[in-house]
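Supplementary Methods, section 5.1.

A reviewer requested that the exact input to the structure prediction be made available. We therefore reproduce it here, unchanged from the version used in the analyses.
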Amino acid sequence: MKKMVSILLLALFLISAGCTETQDENDENTVSDDATIVHLSYGAFILPEMAVQKMVVNSTSVNFSYYNYQDELTARYVKPIDHETRDELIALFNNNDFMELDELYEPQEGQPIVADTGIVEIQVMQNGVTKVVKVEPYASEYMPDKLKEINNALIELRQYALSPSENERKKIASEWIMNAPTYSFDGSDLELESYQVSKDNPAEAMLNYTFISSHGGYGNRSGQMITQVITEHSIELVLYNRNVNSAIIDGVWDEMNHVMLEEAVTMMSEEMNCNQTPWQTWYSEGNISFLKEPSEEELIVAYFSTVYNIEVSGLNSVSLEGEKCQYTIEIKESAVETLTEMGWQEA
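The structure derived from this sequence is encoded token-by-token as follows.
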């Protein structure tokens, strides 16, 4: 009898050990509910203050930060994350077998090399262990489909962290106007007339205000001969995320550049590979997210606005031999020098 009991206990022990071993093995290949997820990109040709871009997703928040080349924090945006979104993200990682993906993805033989896109790392930290998947260079062409799906979801979360609320946008806009030269010189009675978010690109918002100046003219008029007359003004601001990209008073004065509106100049690009333009590379890095696949014009406008603070319009493209394309755009005179340095010429 004792022998039988011993055998049963041994069998139970072996079964239990097997279950534990299976459980441990499953844990190693599963992203846990309390894991910390990191999306890190660096090394791209980009503005110095945005050299390193790091998003950390924990159980309560999405924390996105910019660092410069000296690893100094230049901006940080934090948004809460709800349980449903968090659970969906964890499930996405597990459904796409993230823990079993390779540690490095890079161009395979025969694939073209994408330049100036930097490197991306997607990390999962749990139980004192960090799983890192790196893509070098950072381009979707080098990712397996499972990793693309994960990366796209993280890019959407990053855009969520960057996007300000309606009240935040209104505060940013009103403070910008009050600190700008025209209003700060003699303005008063600032009032919001309209607020509108772009249907195609929710990162962009248009806000229209009215205010009163006690003198004629625009900008800081210190030391100028000015008329003391009550003047009503309207000002239209275009915000992209938290940045003021355009501020026009009365349709004639550029409050950002402190000049009367300039005449448009048509610029022509060099011949480019149609599928590897600077804006396509920028988009593939995940620097911007659209609700739907953007048209080329929408992408070009967003690229020049975000990276160079240049307003472009009037896009036209011509297809050439050998999968080459050439583009023409309209810009303001003040942007001609920047475009010329990039290889564009006046048409």
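Confidence is low (pLDDT under 50) at residues 19-25. These observations are discussed further in the main text.
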